[in-house]
Amino acid sequence: STDIQWIVERIETSSMEGLKSLCYQIKQESAEPTVVVVGAVVNGKPSLAILLPEEAVSLGLHAGNLIKMWASIVKGGGGGQPHYASAGGNDASKLDEALLEAQNHLSSRL
Fold first, then answer.
1. 76 exposure class (CB count in 10 Å sphere: 0-12, 13-18, 19+)
2. CB-based burial of residue 74 (10 Å sphere; 0-12 exposed, 13-18 middle, 19+ buried)?
3. Above pLDDT 70, what percent of the chain?
4. Phi/psi at 81 (nearest 5 deg)?
């Protein structure tokens, strides 16, 4: 077990930029190192974003690799840096399933 918290939330936003800024806002407001995963349906398409603290990256987690895994659930793809990544998909009905998978994965790793 680590001292890293995690938050997985479905939110309402009209843009990918909104997802990204929310990730950084949650990170700033968190007292503990926090992995932030947010999902939203943007213009009818499922979108996901993940932000990892340094502590999670040093444990071997990689935002780009994680998002690819979860994006496949919503019939999409994505990628990014070790710390931040985002993805879009084509099946909005699977967004909750992707977020649940993210929760399960993080709870098993952290």
1. buried
2. buried
3. 99
4. -80, 170
51: nearest Cα among 95, 9, 97, 94: 9
Find where tokens 């843009």 sit.
Answer: 15
**109, 65 Cβ separation under 8 angstroms:** no
For 42, residues 6+ apart whose C-beta sits below 8 A from its C-beta are 13, 14, 15, 16, 18, 19, 88
**Cα dist. 45→2, 9, 49, 79, 100 in Å?**
34, 16, 13, 17, 18
Is 102 in a helix, a strand, or coil? helix
Tens of pLDDT, residues 19-30: 999 999 999 999
pLDDT tens column, 65-97 = 999 999 999 999 988 999 999 999 999 999 999
